[in-house]
């Protein structure tokens, strides 16, 4: 999608995890481009953005919020961190989908 070529204000981790950070001091919103598909907020799966042909959306971005969105039909293994690697190995994984 050619609209994505010039974007330098957001990025993909892999093919399905999109990060849209605030890059300007004092801003509490960010304008993010969503390629076609359904995108779910990683931290609140009730927040869904459906983009039919690709669209820009203004997202709230207070200091305590990181805008990370998961692409449709993606399964993402997640685990809470531990202070030490040994402790982390005892914490079970969960799946976000």
Automatic annotation (TrEMBL):
Alphabetized GO MF terms: alpha-D-xyloside xylohydrolase
Key word Hydrolase present: yes
Pfam family, any one: Glyco_hydro_31_3rd
Record key words, sorted: Glycosidase, Hydrolase
Domain Glycosyl hydrolase family 31 C-terminal: 3-76
Superkingdom assignment: Eukaryota
E.C. designation(s): 3.2.1.177
UniProt cross-references to InterPro entries, sorted A to Z: Glyco_hydro_31_C (IPR048395), Glyco_hydro_b (IPR013780)
Name of this chain's protein: Putative alpha-D-xyloside xylohydrolase
Organism: Rosa chinensis (China rose)
């Amino acid at each position: 999608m050619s609209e994505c070529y010039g974007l330098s204000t957001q990025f993909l981790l892999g093919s399905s995890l999109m990060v849209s950070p605030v890059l300007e001091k004092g801003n509490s919103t960010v304008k993010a481009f969503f390629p076609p598909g359904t995108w779910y907020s990683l931290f609140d799966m009730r927040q869904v953005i459906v983009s039919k042909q690709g669209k820009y959306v203004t997202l709230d971005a207070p200091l305590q919020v990181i805008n990370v969105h998961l692409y449709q039909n993606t399964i993402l293994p997640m685990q809470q961190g531990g202070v030490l690697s040994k402790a982390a190995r005892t914490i079970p994984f969960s799946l976000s989908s």
